[in-house]
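Example record

Each entry pairs one chain with its bound ligand, nicotinamide-adenine-dinucleotide.
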Amino acid sequence: MSVRPAPAIDPARGDTPYGGADIDPHPPLRIGIIGVGGISQAHRNGYLAAGAELVAIADSQPQALQARAQAWGVERSYTDFRAMFADGEVDAVSIAAPTAVHAPATLAAADHGVHVLCEKPIALDLEQGRTMIDACRHAGVVFMINHQLRSHGAAELAKRMLERGDLGDITHLRLRQAHDWAGSAAVRMSFSTRASSGGGTLLDNGCHLMDLARYFGDDVEEVYARTATRKFAVELEDTAHVSLRFMNGALGTVEVAWTATGWEEGFWIYGTHGALEYTNRSGVPLMRHVHRASPGTTWGETDVSEHRFAGDAPHARHIRAFLAAIRGERPVVCSGEDGLEAVRLVFAAYESAERNAPIRVADAPTTLLG
Ligand SMILES: NC(=O)c1ccc[n+]([C@@H]2O[C@H](COP(=O)([O-])OP(=O)(O)OC[C@H]3O[C@@H](n4cnc5c(N)ncnc54)[C@H](O)[C@@H]3O)[C@@H](O)[C@H]2O)c1
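Structure tokens for the complex follow.
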């Protein structure tokens, strides 16, 4: 199936290659969503905000499907995503079904020339992830992984500052994502067993942070992890810490938990010439650039520049980036290979926790299946 070509960008008309102009020169892309559970709402919101058309949804649970079709006003709904592709009415899909469905849905999309935004983790098996990447490349479709934190305004600014050398060389970084299932007494069903999710918080939240670690830092050489189950009656870990050693010698720490209170997300990047400290903890996403530009600062007193972030949430920004990549306006923000490397680090961390020993990433197991 071919994607409708976008009209040429005309600067005289006020068009810009990155959107934001008053006149949108592109016909809306026709979107499908596979899996209409918890996270699908963020995808739908993102597409609507970006001016795309949600034309079809698929979910194996007829009741959930019908409820969403009605609430969202979507006419085409399918209990089998293959039937959605066969109808040929979508240009791009979000795959927001459980992780085991990511591979078959991606392969079906590629088979029909449909671009894919795939939820994380890309897959529970590295070879399977590689097959997904190869199929999309062969089909010439965009394949992007929904590590949406890369598109957070704070992460984008941090990345630009790192590339400019504002912090000097990274010495160490700390990444944290932790929550408490909104105060619930139980873990959401599809996350609570190894069979349904493949892993606990280390996989669920940890793959996002492993991706950010590589995005900000470097490839990782070695990990040392500890996991614990402290609060919930689940067969998986609900709390985990991982120590990273990057190829370039810098160090990192990843902290994930379903045993926090509230929703915490943050990164702290320390370099030879300054630090970036980002957290959402106060309710206002705030990044501080801590540096010593002024003479006479003391041990505790430094220069500080503060950055606050308004506008679209990271999911919506990531979806804008996905649509822009489809239109050829910018490179993919988070590729299939990025998704695969994030998962490889998680696999290495599980092996490390199991053996209570540091594990070289090159020696990581290649699957969580079986
Ligand atoms: N990027 C993020 O921050 C983020 C956040 C939450 C979840 N996720 C990921 O999104 C995916 C879904 O998570 P969720 O929290 O929405 O789960 P969920 O259980 O709330 O929803 C999953 C939906 O997929 C449907 N489904 C199951 N098998 C299917 C199939 N074969 N075809 C079509 N639909 C099928 C289920 O019926 C359900 O409605 C997971 O891979 C998860 O890791 C990502």
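Confidence is low (pLDDT under 50) at residues 1-22.
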